[in-house]
Structure formats: structure tokens, C-alpha cells
Amino acid sequence: MENTKLKLIRILELLQKESSKSKPLTTQQICQKLEKIGMHCERRTLYKDIKLLIECGYDIEVVTSKTANLYYYKKAPALSFAELKILIDAAEAASFISENQTAEIVAKLAALGGSRRSELLNGNLIHFNSQKHNNCDLYETITTIETAIQRKLRISFYYFDLDEHAERIYRHNKKLYAVDPVVLIHNHDNYYLRCYNPEHDQMRNYRIDRMTDAEITDIPMDEKADVSETEITEYISQSFKMYSGRTVETLLEFKNELLDVIFDKFGENTPVVRKNDDACIATVVVQTSPTFWGWYFQFPEKMKICSPDWLVEECEKWRGLRYEG
């Protein structure tokens, strides 16, 4: 039995390394190559061996001719330089992937570039205004969610926010959440789980990088979580456009409930001090563009600019325009 398993592995390796659509291997060639590495293979059993590999999911093509069968491993087409560059840029721009995970992904993608590997690693002229998060459970969480969606099963997890020191504070004294996953959504530099929460009997969103210890349960998904693709597409919002503006360091005072908002916008290394039990102050660098003001005025009565004075005055002008509009 062990020799049979080893022979299957050697046949697969041989087809992967030495065959192609333009250069398939005959039964005789495969048997001869196996003999050279000290492994006997009879012609009459080779077809059964390859058939078994195909049944196990390996992408092997069988070409039947008048004189003999030919075999080759169907390799996926190689990614072009531009395609690899786009994928690398996407990994570097994704804020929900940690710094270490980003470096690993970039290295793996660059390795596919062959002789142009150094170009992919050193030729990046694009700079992204993304702040990386530090939750290294991300891959396991995504895998768990996708598996649960396929199996239509409920998942459980813990959910946390960040305090002024960027330390985890689990919601509801580390209560175990239980939801029916519907879809993963990438939006506004974050990755979200759209799901049905049976406890509240409504659809809700949870950030993937704020979830830990995600596990699949044996509870079937509620029928209310069976949402159509059309409904999902209609729900997903579009990203804001980018505008340039004057860059300035400023002090923002805000309610404690906006700590996540501040860390998301400016990064988890943002200097934050607690003013009192209800408010914090952060030192941040902002671009005074329409996009910034649009973001700022999402939080009326919960955030204010403390300095510099000219920015406080500009804020009042924008506030006036907002109310006049």
C-alpha cells in the first residue's frame, strides 16, 4: 500500500514538472521516467493510477490518440507583471491586514514574478493612506466564516473595541456572539461580515478585524439569513472620492464612543489622552478637504476641533455652509 501511495505521488510530480499541453507525456515515457528513479510501473496500471488522481481532484488531461494515451497537467496561466502589481498594491492598501501578514503576502506574490521579483518589491511608486490593524486572527476568521456560509451554519465569536491605548475591550464583558453569516463585504478600507443576528432579529454588520475565536456551530442558519445577491448588491455602499487639501496638525476632542472611529481614520498609534470619563483628545494630522469636512460633520455634538485657531474658524464657516445648504 505504501508503494502504491508513493507511486501516485511520483506520477503527479512528474506530470506537474515535465508535462504541458504542448508537450504531453506518453504512457511509455512516464513508465521510463519512473524506472529511472527506481520505481516500477506497469503500462496497464498507469491509466488506473492517473484516473484515481483525477478522481481526487487533480487537473490532469488525458489525450487519446490512435497509438497511445498522452497525459499532461493543466497548469493555471501565469499572472502577468501588471496583475501581480495590482494584487501587491491591494494587499498594501488593505488596512484590515496586519503589517506582518501584508509582508508575507507581498513576498509570496513577488516570488511569482520570477526574474522581475525585485521590480515588484522595489518599484512601488504608489503610496497608500491606510493604517494597518493588528488582529492576526484575520485569516482564521475569514476561513471560518466562508466555511459556515457554504454549510449554512451559525457561527460564534467574541467582539471588541479599542480603548485610548489601542488595547482590546470586549463588548458586554466578553459575551459570546452567535450569528448567521451572509456575506463578507470590503468597504471604506475595512472588511465586514453582513449577517443575521437572531437575538435582535435583524441584519447586522461586524468588522472582521474586531472578531476573535470565531467557530462554526452545529445550529442551522435561520431562513431570514437567506438573502439574495440582488439585496446584497443594493446594500453595499460606494467609497468616497478623494480630494486634496491643506495638511495640518490639530487637536480633536471627541466622545469616548468615537475611539474606534479615530483609530480607523488615523491609525492605532494615534496619541490619545482621556480628558474625563466622557471624552478624549487626540493629536492628528488632517487634510482640510471636502472629504475631511464630510467625515467630520458625521459626528455633530460628539467631536470638535480645539486647535489651531484658524482651523476652528474654518470649521465654523463649513458649519454655516452646511446649515445654509
Would you give an account of this structure?
It is a single chain. Strands 4, 5, 6, 7, 8 and 9 form a 6-stranded antiparallel beta sheet that branches. Strands 11-12-10-13 form a 4-stranded antiparallel beta sheet, with helices on one face. Strands 1-3-2 form a 3-stranded antiparallel beta sheet. 38% of the residues lie in helices and 27% in strands. Helix 4 packs antiparallel against helix 5. A hairpin with a 4-residue loop joins strand 7 and strand 8. Mean pLDDT is 83; it is low at 237-242. It is built from 11 helices and 13 strands. It folds into 4 domains: 2-73, Orthogonal Bundle (Arc Repressor Mutant, subunit A); 81-122, no CATH class; 138-235, no CATH class; 246-324, Alpha-Beta Plaits (2-Layer Sandwich), CATH 3.30.70. By secondary structure, it is of the alpha+beta class.
Secondary structure: helix percent: 25-40%
Number of domains: 4
Largest sheet: 6 strands, antiparallel
Which of globular, elongated, flat, extended, rod-shaped describes the shape? elongated
Uncertain ranges: 237-242
Structural class given helices, strands, pairing?
A: alpha+beta
Overall average pLDDT: 83
Rg from Cα:
28 Å
β-strand amount: 25-35%
In N-to-C order, the SSE pattern is HEHHEEHHHHEEEEEEHEHEEHEH
The count of helical stretches stands at: 11
